[in-house]
Design goal:
It contains two helices and ten strands. The chain is mostly beta strands. The chain has a four-stranded mixed β-sheet. It has a four-stranded mixed β-sheet with strand order 4-3-6-5. Strands 9-10 form a two-stranded antiparallel ribbon. The longest helix has 12 residues. It is globular and about 35 Å long.
Length: 131
């Protein structure tokens, strides 16, 4: 079954821990606004939020996936912030601890960016990473 891509994402390795709190993931205001826009679309009717996952892909091994979430799995983590819901797939939880999710838009691209202090290496394009 093919999945529909709802947004693209890149990763950035950061030197310091982004989050002082115990939350697995914190969203910037631009990310919150973009998630609201995505969830307001007709395609998002019947979904509870966005689900962040991880899969093996790319030259460095792992990449993030974003999809609509119909429900929260038994071992998935739920992050609610400023009225939006992000479900973190159980397989992605350890890779996302302490991460900031941002949305960046410039002349050439618009994408979610995960500022992650756990990353040991990224590929040149920033799409895949290793822990």
């Amino acid at each position: 079954m093919a999945t529909k891509t709802i947004a693209s994402a890149t990763v950035r390795a950061v030197k310091k821990r982004v989050l002082p709190s115990r939350a697995a993931l914190v969203l910037t205001q631009s990310a919150v606004q973009k998630v609201r826009e995505i969830m307001a679309k007709e395609d998002a009717k019947g979904f509870i939020g966005l689900k962040v996952g991880v899969r093996q892909r790319g030259c460095n091994g792992l990449s993030y996936t974003l999809d609509y979430a119909k429900e929260r799995g038994k071992l998935d983590e739920e992050v609610k912030q400023d009225g939006v819901t992000i479900i973190i797939d159980r397989k992605a939880q350890l890779t996302l601890l302490g991460t900031e999710m941002d949305f960046v838009e410039d002349k050439l691209s618009s994408e979610f960016v995960f500022n992650n202090p756990n990353i040991k290496g990224t590929c040149g394009c920033g799409e895949s990473f290793s822990i």
